[in-house]
């Protein structure tokens, strides 16, 4: 009987991508996906960005122990950023944890899992940082490749923003070789992928480190865009301090580069941005927005925002609201600031009271709801092409309700005849209504 695995993922798209790769790699070795209660291998891929990350992982491990009834035969793997922080400290507290995998250890995880299953008394901690990008096999094939694929182009970060621990949990920046990135993209396209998103902590600085081969991000972007069979191209995440005119121009020059960009603002106050160590001011950020819209007038922008950074005044917060209005973000991820052990801002005085933080977050999110609703309303009546993602459980009468995304990344729901939908199909639609965070549409052509 094949061994079963179960993956629980926290955090960012890079973690999701790592989990997807590990799942495919295990399946190529004969493992099968299973429910938590029946799994032989349980993998927790963890994140340090959100509030109280260690406690959330400890709670999840307690649930794993409860659901698996504490069976000693169950191999529990803790991977990701919290694994990098805690390391072998998991072993003493959680007997089921026998493998800890840091950011650079993921490539070794499939071999380590097989080894530990064969040697029940062994434990391994793979948390050493490598001096080069840790390449891993593509783990594609077998009909498992998604129509929309993510390709890592780099690992780690050199920016050391005051609130962030990514340089400590994912290490210093390491770029992949251009040919390795292109090879993985070609392999994905050969197995049915139609959309690729290039991933990195700061894609703008790709190639400009000792591990890189000198290829710049604008050059890589154009090389990937030219690959046969690629219908849509996206990338995340750029840092505003590094975005170049060549990248901005690409939005108007590359037909398959989607007009959607996630551009993290974090704060609109120049004083707060300086304390954060972001190395740009609000005027520069808004110039980038202006240049992007000059290159591609219909570009849709989303962002990240931190509320209640140490020392933030009401005047500072109002500056954030001002920049949000001027930028016209279609959506945002917004959070109250919280200390991260090891990050510089954890030592800053003048922490903002939780009730003040929550009040500001509520006001910010109310503004974002207005901006998002206004953007969605402009789409009603427009034609779009969506890539179908999955059928929903909504009652659709004799048909099926499907959700897909257009070139702007907007979620569009559509009713199709039973059996007509399939993940990865491109479907022309006419947008008929705007909801709070999504759109409704009706078919306007045949899927392809």
What's the short version?
This protein has 13 helices and 19 strands.
Notable characteristics:
448 residues; alpha/beta; 6-stranded parallel β-sheet; 5-stranded mixed beta barrel; 13 helices; globular
Question: How would you describe what is shown here?
Answer:
There is one protein chain. This protein is an alpha/beta fold. The chain is built from 13 helices and 19 strands. Strand 16 and strand 17 form a beta hairpin. The protein is globular. The mean pLDDT is 94.
Mean pLDDT: 94
The DSSP helix count reads 13
> Multimeric state of these chains?
single chain
Quick one: overall form? Answer: globular
- What's the number of extended β-strand segments? 19
Which segments are poorly predicted (pLDDT under 50) over 5 or more consecutive residues? Answer: none
Helical residue percent? Answer: 25-40%
- Neighbour order of strands in the largest sheet: 2-1-3-4-5-6
Main β-sheet description: 6 strands, parallel
Instruction: Please identify the structural class as seen in this structure.
Output: alpha/beta
**Strand percentage, roughly?**
15-25%
State the end-to-end distance.
39 Å
Q: What is the C-alpha radius of gyration, as a whole number of Å?
A: 22 Å
Task: Summarize the SSE layout with pairings.
Layout: E1 4-9, H1 13-28, E2 32-33, E3 41-46, H2 53-67, E4 75-80, H3 81-86, H4 89-93, E5 97-101, H5 109-118, E6 124-126, E7 148-152, E8 154-155, H6 166-169, E9 174-175, H7 178-190, E10 195-199, H8 217-225, E11 232-236, H9 245-253, E12 260-262, H10 270-276, H11 282-295, E13 300-307, H12 314-327, E14 331-336, H13 354-379, E15 383-391, E16 399-405, E17 411-417, E18 426-434, E19 439-443
Parallel strand pairs: 1-2, 1-3, 3-4, 4-5, 5-6, 7-10, 10-11, 12-13, 13-14, 17-19
Antiparallel strand pairs: 8-9, 15-16, 15-18, 16-17, 18-19
Helix pairs in contact: 9-11, 12-13
């Amino acid at each position: 009987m094949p061994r079963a695995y179960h993956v629980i993922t926290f955090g960012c798209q890079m973690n999701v991508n790592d989990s997807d790769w590990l799942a495919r790699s295990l399946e190529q070795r004969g493992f099968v996906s299973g429910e938590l209660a029946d799994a032989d291998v349980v993998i927790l891929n963890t994140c340090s960005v959100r509030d109280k990350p260690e406690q959330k992982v400890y709670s999840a491990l307690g649930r794993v122990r409860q659901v698996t009834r504490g069976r000693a035969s169950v191999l529990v793997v803790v991977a990701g950023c919290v694994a990098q922080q805690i390391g072998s400290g998991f072993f003493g507290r959680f007997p089921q944890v026998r493998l800890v995998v840091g950011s650079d250890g993921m490539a070794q995880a499939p071999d380590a899992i097989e080894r530990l299953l064969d040697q029940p008394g062994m434990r391994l901690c793979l948390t050493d940082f490598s001096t080069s990008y840790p390449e891993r096999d593509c783990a594609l094939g077998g009909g498992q490749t998604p129509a929309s694929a993510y390709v890592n182009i780099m690992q780690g970060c050199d920016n050391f923003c005051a609130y962030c621990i990514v340089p400590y949990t994912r290490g210093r920046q390491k770029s992949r070789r251009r040919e390795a990135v292109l090879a993985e993209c070609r392999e994905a396209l050969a197995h049915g992928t139609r959309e690729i998103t290039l991933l990195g902590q700061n894609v703008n600085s790709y190639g400009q480190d000792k591990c890189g081969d000198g290829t710049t991000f604008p050059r890589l972007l154009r090389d990937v865009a030219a690959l046969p069979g690629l219908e849509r191209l996206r990338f995340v995440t750029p840092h505003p301090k590094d975005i170049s005119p060549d990248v901005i121009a690409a939005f108007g020059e590359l037909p398959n580069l989607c007009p959607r960009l996630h551009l993290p603002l974090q704060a609109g106050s120049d004083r707060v941005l300086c304390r954060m160590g972001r190395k740009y001011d609000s005027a520069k950020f808004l110039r980038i927005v202006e240049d992007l819209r000059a290159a591609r007038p219909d570009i849709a922008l989303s962002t990240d925002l931190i509320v209640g950074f140490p020392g933030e005044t009401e005047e500072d917060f109002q500056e954030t609201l001002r920049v949000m209005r001027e930028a016209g973000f279609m959506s945002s991820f917004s959070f109250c600031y919280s200390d991260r052990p090891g990050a510089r801002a954890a030592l800053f005085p003048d922490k903002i009271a939780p009730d003040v933080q929550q009040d500001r977050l509520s006001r910010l999110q109310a503004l974002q709801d207005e901006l998002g609703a206004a953007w969605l309303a402009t789409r009603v009546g427009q034609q779009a092409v969506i890539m179908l993602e999955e059928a929903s459980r909504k009652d659709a009468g004799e048909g099926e309700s499907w959700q897909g995304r257009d070139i702007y990344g907007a979620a569009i729901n559509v009713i199709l005849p039973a059996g007509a939908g399939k993940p990865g199909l491109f479907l022309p639609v006419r947008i008929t209504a705007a909801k709070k965070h999504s759109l409704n549409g009706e078919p306007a052509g045949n899927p392809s």
